[in-house]
Hints:
The structure holds two protein chains of two kinds. Chain A is of the alpha+beta class. Chain A has one domain. Chain A is about 50% helix and about 10% strand. Chain A has a four-stranded mixed beta sheet. Chain A is globular. Mean pLDDT of chain A is about 85; it is low at about 10-25. By secondary structure, chain B is mostly helical. Chain B has one domain. The longest helix of chain B is centred in the N-terminal third of the chain and has 23 residues, at about 1-25. The radius of gyration of chain B is 29 Å and the shape is rod-shaped. The interface between A and B is medium-sized, with 28 and 21 residues.
Amino acid sequence: MKRTLAFASGAFIAAALAVAAPAWAQANDPVVTQARAAGAIGEMTDGYLGFAPGASISADLRGRVEQINIQRRQLYTRRAAERNVSVNEMAAAVACEVFDHRIAVGERYRDEGGQWRQHTAAQPVAKPSFCP
Amino acid sequence: MRMRAKVLAGLGAAAAVAGCIPVQIQAPDEPIEINLNVNIRQEVIVRLERDAQELLEQNSNLF
């Protein structure tokens, strides 16, 4: 029992360290960046990355995106606990920032109604209704 | 006696009509609840704006 606890806390610390890596050590995964630019994957209003309908997604890409989403969820969960809000609320707050600044022209995204759209010069990103 | 019965019946009808009116005023309850939820949610998200920005900056590899 004690050992399980020690292992669990060790794993937790390792996960926390992995998430809290310094900014300079980070670089975007080129495979993910490329898929984003190609419109195969995109941001969703729930704060996670999703797979665009009709896009062919390799097992490798799927795994990378799922890893990112797992790490995002860890971030949201931790900060939500610190701020006494729900994980979904924290995720929604991040989605507001992402939809405001981080979806480049040409990229696709899933709007609040579940529709996939493309950010073009003529059509700006549709802001979710829950965003300020 | 008959007159009294008529008056009573009239009063009864009036009471029934009067009684019906307040019963009918019970239509909307869901829309109010939804609006309330949206307000609370947006307030929370406004409060979390700084945190959201910080998470994005510190974890740019995930976004």
